[in-house]
Amino acid sequence: MSMSDCIFCKILDGELPSAKVYEDEDVYAFLDISQVSKGHTLVIPKNHTENIYETDEETAQKVFARIPKIANALQKTYEPKGMNILQNNGEFAGQTVFHLHIHLIPRYDNNEDGFDLKWVTHNDAYDLQELSNEIRKNI
Predict the structure, then answer these.
(1) d(CA 4, CA 9)
(2) Residue 124 neighbours by CB under 8 Å, 6+ apart
(3) Gene3D superfamilies in the record, alphabetically (predicted)?
(4) Which CATH architecture has domain 3-136?
């Protein structure tokens, strides 16, 4: 897949909308359109890299260094009981967008949030812009 076909690169270029949670010169975080649970956030590098295997150390360092800040904002905003941090590599592992991304998935109740290693779309249940505005207040 070329960068011009990458949905996340199109989001970064402003060609597609997103509900931004965090942004700096190297990293962009936004709400996953599927919202496995309330506040489900994706963290991506701004430079295109397909997966962890193709990611250089400097890019990984920048992306992973932002995870605690964003996770703590989600914790402060929604007070989940826990959080899963997930990163898929390759189609077999469930990667569907081939631009490195880390999922931050707040957990509220046992499987009531749709997370049981099955991706259940809840995009009609949440106003993504409203959720992203709430989280940004705590970053």
Answers:
(1) 7
(2) none
(3) HIT-like
(4) 2-Layer Sandwich (3.30)
